[in-house]
Amino acid sequence: MRKKIVAGNWKMNKTLPEGIQLAEEVNEKVKALQVPEVKVILGTPFIHLAEVSKIVDPAIISISAQNCATEASGAYTGEISAAMVASTGSTHVILGHSERRSYYGETDAILVKKVAQALANQLEIIFCIGEVLAEREAGKHFEVVKSQLENGLFQLSPEEFSHIILAYEPVWAIGTGKTATSAQAQEMHAFIRKVLTEKYGKEIAENTSILYGGSCNAKNADELFSNPDVDGGLIGGASLKAEDFSLIIAARA
Ligand code: 3PY
């Protein structure tokens, strides 16, 4: 049985004291909700990881970085390795977010290296895929998403792939306030599961959690999560307020 997951992506928000406060609030809310069937993940900036790991109860909340380096260690000024991330108590890393692909030039080849580093350091990966508006308007969205899977992940063995959580984030719905309709989300998630079945077989495809991301919030979460192939959400802006984030977690329960 695949997991229901709600993961927050704080992006580049919150100073350290603000992040600590938010993590404390989320920890209290999740404790009160009592939803062991939902895996809750906080994707914080690098500088928060170690502190937030100490604050939250690891039985109910896991911690994730939002990126890691392509290399293991060495003269790479400003980079943070997967081993460093793991040493903070973080168990997850978000890779391939469209903001990293478009603003920082992360190609499929770069992501292959980051995925390898993350797996070598026992990190679970939330791997983001999704098309831009022009690709959807040209009817190429399925092709684009399939190629992101093939070129970024399909080098993995079935065992390695079991450490992947997918997040479908249509780029035109990120930070724009536009959300894919429930039907568009389900259509793409079902397509992704079909592609996974063809590559890894039915069991792995059925066990892979596929999250929806892109302006998912407390108002639309219920409807999005009611789809059979939408296993949860990767939440941007709405993860920055403990109340909104906990409403989304409750919607997934
Ligand atoms: C969003 O909801 O805008 C996101 O990009 C989540 O990763």
Overview of this protein structure:
It is a single chain. With 253 residues, the chain is α/β, with parallel strands linked by helices. It has a single domain, classed as TIM Barrel. It contains twelve helices and eight strands. The site of 3-hydroxypyruvic acid has 12 residues, from strand 8.
Defining key terms:
8 strands; TIM Barrel; 253 residues; binds 3-hydroxypyruvic acid; 16% strand; 12 helices; single chain; 8-stranded parallel barrel; alpha/beta
Hetero ligands: 3-hydroxypyruvic acid
Question: Strand tally, please?
Answer: 8
CATH superfamily: Aldolase class I
Integer-rounded radius of gyration? 17 Å
Output the strand order for the largest sheet: 1-2-3-4-5-6-7-8
Percent of residues in helices: 40-55%
User: β content, as a range?
Assistant: 15-25%
Counting structural domains, the number is: 1
Largest sheet: 8 strands, parallel, barrel
**Low-confidence sequence ranges:** none
Mean pLDDT: 97
Distance between the amino and carboxyl termini: 15 Å
- What's the helix count? 12
Quote the CATH topology: TIM Barrel
The CATH class, by name, is: Alpha Beta
Which second-level CATH architecture applies?
Alpha-Beta Barrel
- Sheet/helix structural class: alpha/beta
Shape: globular
* Topology as a string of helices (H) and strands (E): EHEHEHEHHEHHHEHHEHEH
